[in-house]
Design a protein that fits this description.
Elements: H1 11-23, H2 27-37, H3 40-43, H4 49-78, H5 82-99, E1 107-108, H6 111-127, E2 156-160, E3 163-167, H7 169-193, H8 205-228, H9 240-250, H10 257-279, H11 290-304, H12 307-311, H13 331-362, H14 369-384, E4 392-393, H15 395-403, H16 410-426, H17 435-445, H18 447-450, H19 456-462, H20 464-479, H21 482-502, E5 506-512, E6 518-520, E7 527-528, E8 532-538, H22 547-558, H23 562-581, H24 586-589, H25 591-599, E9 607-613, H26 622-636, E10 641-645, H27 649-657, H28 668-671, E11 672-673, H29 676-683
Parallel strand pairs: 8-9, 9-10, 10-11
Antiparallel strand pairs: 1-4, 2-3, 5-6, 5-7, 5-8
Helix pairs in contact: 4-5, 4-6, 4-11, 4-15, 4-16, 4-17, 5-14, 5-16, 6-7, 6-13, 7-13, 7-14, 8-9, 8-17, 8-20, 8-21, 10-11, 10-17, 13-14, 19-20, 20-21
Catalytic activity: sulfate(out) + 2 chloride(in) = sulfate(in) + 2 chloride(out); oxalate(in) + sulfate(out) = oxalate(out) + sulfate(in); bromide(in) + chloride(out) = bromide(out) + chloride(in); iodide(in) + chloride(out) = iodide(out) + chloride(in)
Protein name: Sulfate transporter
Pfam family, one: Sulfate_transp
Length: about 675
């Protein structure tokens, strides 16, 4: 076979041409840039109103109804007031409608992201000297975020627009959240500009599942105190899960009976409704709005039963209507949370892209991962000016969206309108809603993630290494912290890949009878060995990290180390010469000399050629090429040929550049073969 002549590309000219093209500005190019940046301009004019509108309206209303109670509930995770969760849900849906490329993904508030935001908020509040256990935070009063009259134990001075403003606990908490969200959005936009979307490829499915499950355990633990109505310190730092459970058991005697009874009833109702919904989902046109019903009923019971006054049951408190005037996130706070924003940005993008790709594959359309990066980035940057916090695509809401007839992101606008109605008119009605009810909604929403524990045996049966990645990531996320869990998961996943390539499978091959094919002699029966030929397979790239393993495996399977054998032969020749010179001393030396000579007799080699099956070697580095040159030279000294078979073009090019085939590739026809059978025939 002859290789095609590759046309040499002048990279300098190519780069200059690309640069010239990218820097040129024509009306057509400007239009394409705008249309690409706002995909809504492409698909909205082609919107099939009669075909799509009812599905979009139905899914939008259902998601909006689910979104309101979830937004209020997830505010507990973020350590913020419910109004900010509603802002987040509203702005995220509008911006993704304009910039997203997925038709079905539901972007908005997400439990895992809320938890990560809440951990940073709690840490910074503690460092600023605020009391995390102040349960009764005041409302927004006059609607101003930067209100210095809040009765908290500490006030903190922030510099905003060059002016120093005294800031209370709630003001400082949302300031931290918006700064964190802004920086995360900037990271995502920069990743989009520099086309770093490939970073998400290093987040394996097992690692993400383990991370989500570990974070779910942390979320569940954080909600237990609301569930039973006890007041315990909000644990921070590493080992939060263990410390929180210790505090729970130490203070279990202080449990609020009213909250315990309410929680038990709500969990039974929610779980029963979810199980019935899952069982009869093929008969239901849309999911049951159980969360909304529970919230409405619980609010009415709490209000008319005066549960807060009579039984000291903790309630949500005042939720103002309307919008707070926008504010620029505080630059000083951005510097404090810049490191925390990086894992937040990566996780937010990874979940969004993976869900977008899942929906695109299911419904046969394409998404642009880089544009998704921009969309999620601006879903964080713009809302951060409006007192919102970080967002991401959410699996549960996305599945509901697709099951209720969603066709396009018009459904997201409908959901945003539902949230807007609550923001403008209905928010104050949730004043008497008990926090234990919100905790129940959060805990029941974790069913899917917690059910992953049931899949561990099946996962272990499929792949033991992936199961180990899941267990390690889940344990680190739950027992240490979410950020450390993410880092541990990524590093451990990569180490598993490295170890797999460092110690891959190796085998000697035998011939399948009456065919030209060869397979692993230990795995298959009735294979016949080829006389005088050893066929060696190495199932990994050959590079510096596995060079020694390659050589050890080759020597072990062929039962011949050429270096040892060459040294043995040299010693034998040397002893033989000494014996010839000292024949007169043979009698004196006696049997000892004969035993020494016997030990140094050259080994009888039962093969004359080694065929290396390179079909699984995807690439060679310099060390890999030198290793092959080394075994070629070493075995040649023992009159054993080394033949390469099934090399891919990149491996052949590496061998050529490394001088494996000699000057002008003169030995190439005798060293390289396109199939194992050709190499065997040549060896015979």
């Amino acid at each position: 076979m002859e290789r095609k002549t590759q046309v040499k590309i002048n990279r300098k000219k190519l780069m200059l041409a690309k640069l010239r093209k990218s820097c040129s500005c024509t009306p057509g190019k400007l239009k394409n840039i705008i249309m690409g940046f706002f995909p809504v301009l492409q698909w909205l004019p082609k919107y099939r109103c009669k075909e799509y509108i009812w599905g979009d309206i139905m899914s939008g209303l259902v998601i909006g109804i689910i979104l309101v109670p979830q937004a209020i509930a997830y505010s507990l995770l973020a350590g913020l007031k419910p109004i900010y969760s509603l802002y987040t849900s509203f702005f995220a849906n509008i911006i993704y409608f304009l910039m997203g490329t997925s038709r079905h993904v539901s972007v908005g508030i997400f439990s895992l992201i809320s938890l990560m935001v809440g951990q940073v908020v709690d840490r910074e509040l503690l460092l600023a000297g605020f009391d995390l256990n102040d349960d009764a935070l005041p409302g927004l009063g006059d609607g101003s975020l930067w209100n210095n009259s809040q009765p908290n134990t500490t006030a903190f001075n922030l510099t905003i627009g060059g002016a120093s403003v005294e800031c209370g606990k709630e003001c400082y908490a949302i300031g931290i959240a918006t700064a964190l969200t802004f920086v995360a959005g900037v990271y995502q936009v920069l990743m989009g500009i520099f086309r770093l979307g490939f970073v998400s490829m290093y987040l394996s499915e097992s690692m993400l599942d383990g991370f989500a499950t570990g974070a779910s355990l942390t979320i569940l633990t954080a909600q237990v105190k609301y569930l039973i109505g006890i007041k315990i310190p909000r644990s921070q730092g590493h080992g939060m899960l263990v410390i929180t459970w210790i505090n729970i058991f130490q203070n279990i005697s202080q449990a609020n009976l009213c909250d315990v009874i309410t929680s038990a009833i709500c969990i039974v109702v929610l779980v029963t409704a979810k199980e019935l919904g899952d069982r009869y989902k093929h008969k239901l046109k849309f999911p049951l709005p159980t969360e909304l019903v529970v919230i409405v009923v619980a609010t009415l019971v709490s209000h008319y039963g005066n549960l807060n006054e009579l039984y000291a049951s903790s309630v949500s408190g005042a939720i103002p209507t309307g919008f707070i005037p926008p504010k620029v996130p505080c630059f000083d706070l951005m510097l404090r949370v810049a490191v925390d924003a990086l894992p937040l940005a990566i996780i937010s993008f990874a979940f969004t892209v993976s869900l977008s790709e899942m929906c695109a594959k299911k419904y046969a359309y394409t998404i642009r991962a880089n544009q998704e990066m921009f969309a999620v980035g601006f879903c964080n940057i713009i809302p951060s000016f409006f007192h919102s916090f970080a967002t991401s695509a959410a699996l549960a809401k996305t599945l509901v969206k697709t099951s209720t007839g969603c066709q396009t992101q018009v459904s997201g606008v409908i959901s945003a309108m539902v949230v807007l109605m609550v923001l403008l008119f209905l928010a104050p009605l949730f004043y008497s809603l008990q926090k234990c009810v919100l905790a129940c909604i959060i805990i029941v929403s974790l069913r899917g993630a917690l059910r992953k524990f049931r899949d561990v045996p099946a996962r272990y049966h499929v792949n033991k290494v992936d199961t180990l990645v899941w267990v390690i990531t889940m344990s680190a996320s739950a027992l240490v912290s979410t950020e450390i869990g993410l880092l541990v998961g990524i590093i451990f996943s990569m180490l598993c890949i490295i170890v797999r390539t460092q110690q891959p499978r190796t085998a000697l091959l035998g011939q399948i009878q009456n065919t030209n094919f060869y397979e692993d002699d230990l795995e298959y029966k009735n294979l016949s060995s080829v006389p005088k030929v050893k066929i060696f397979r190495f199932e990994a790239p050959l590079y510096y990290a596995n060079r020694n393993y390659f050589l050890k495996s080759l020597y072990r399977l062929t039962d011949l180390d050429p270096n040892l054998e060459a040294a043995r032969r040299k010693k034998y020749e040397k002893k033989e010469q000494q014996q010839l010179k000292k024949e007169d001393q043979t009698a004196a030396n006696g049997l000892g000399m004969e035993e020494t000579i016997m030990q140094l007799v050259p080994k009888q080699i039962d093969f004359q050629a080694i065929v290396v099956d390179c079909s699984s070697i995807s690439f060679l580095d310099t060390t890999g090429v030198n290793t092959l040159k080394e075994i070629l030279k070493d075995y040649k000294e023992l009159n054993v040929s080394v033949l390469l078979a099934c090399c891919n073009p990149s491996v052949i090019d590496s061998l050529k550049r490394g001088g494996y085939f000699g000057k002008d590739f003169g030995n190439m026809q005798e060293l390289l073969f396109y199939s194992i059978h050709n190499a065997v025939q040549f060896a015979k």
